[in-house]
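Lab notebook, bench 4. The sequencing result for the construct came back, and we need a structural model before the next group meeting so we can plan mutations. Quick request posted to the team channel:

Model the 3D structure of this chain.
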Amino acid sequence: MFDVVYLCFGAAAWALVAYKAVAWFRDRSNTDLGLACVMTGGVATVFLFSAPSLYRGFDRLVGVANLAMVFLYSSVVVFAAGALVLLLRWTAGEGEVARNRARTRARAAVGAVALLWAVAVTGFAVGRPDAVEHPRDFSTAYTDAPGVMLFLMLYLAIFGASLAGLGTLCPRYAARLGGSWLARGLRVLAAGCWLGLVYCACKLIGFVLSWTGHPALWLSNGVAPLGASVAAILVLAGFSLPAAGPRVAAWRRLRRLTPLWRTVTAQTPEVTMDGSRWSGRWPFADLEWRANRQMAEIRDVQRGIRRHVESDAIDIVLERARAVSLDDGQLAAVAEAAALRRGLENRAVGHVPAHGADSVVVADGLDATELAAEYEHLALVADVYHSPLIETVLTELRQRSATMRS
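Done. Here's the predicted structure in token form:
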């Protein structure tokens, strides 16, 4: 079971690394994105080497027992080094002098980590007392081996320091970014860091208990690895949210807008762009572009049919809608949906009222920079487009129009 779980998480993590690497290759100047790729790669490698079968297979291949643990912990140290560089970059301040100072300090920090880790690996090499594989209980099997304990203590010190710094700084930056997906990702990343510190604490407590003759294997070999696995998942989620979040939101908008878009553009195909860009493409490609395009084309239809909507039609719709106690957002959506259907209906039969509406867009108070708010409004329009209330209002408008003609 452990093999399946860890290998699945490892494969997913490496897929995330590949996605971020492609984005970084397109923007090589984005150092933070490059560091995120390196750090995510470190977490992905940890998951792979945590699979007991891969752990033992690697050791059989190289002929050194538990060498996979060195690679596993080295991947964690790579993550930690990346975190330290991020910390130095984020706290450097503005200006070229500050950036140069941050680069100098980052090189020094990476050099110090590399030196400490070289000492740790040396401790492992000279202090490994036997050739027995310990993929699940490495830290408790060698509590009486000074070289291995040096290896483990330096690992926990490097890892813990980086987690504490990153876990403290991420929420501060998230607070400056409001409700953006980047802010959410930073908060999730911080949660992963703090849970990683719980893992470090469990390991240290386990060491102390073993040295005092009261070993707690359940803590070191049970709670600690479980906490580390959940922390790693949170870290990966924190790195993926800034990219995945907007795409998921765009997909949800498309799912809600597409029925309305298809309905209104079927009668006004002239407003739609050439569909060749979408044909034969992966359904999740260009999600944000497609959502923007659908919204723009629905707005184009609304502008085009306003002269086919009676000037007082929206007032009638709002009066009827208020009678069923709708809030302002629902009122605006119902009014626009009814006006849109009425305009398309009149246009289909060639009817142009003597006094057309100046506009059929009711929610014109939306901030044009808040696309999410406008998307949500149009999604509400789509939701109520075929509602019984709209049918009732349209029936009344048809009857009134017929009476006026007669």
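The two ends are 78 Å apart (CA to CA).
Will bring this to the meeting.
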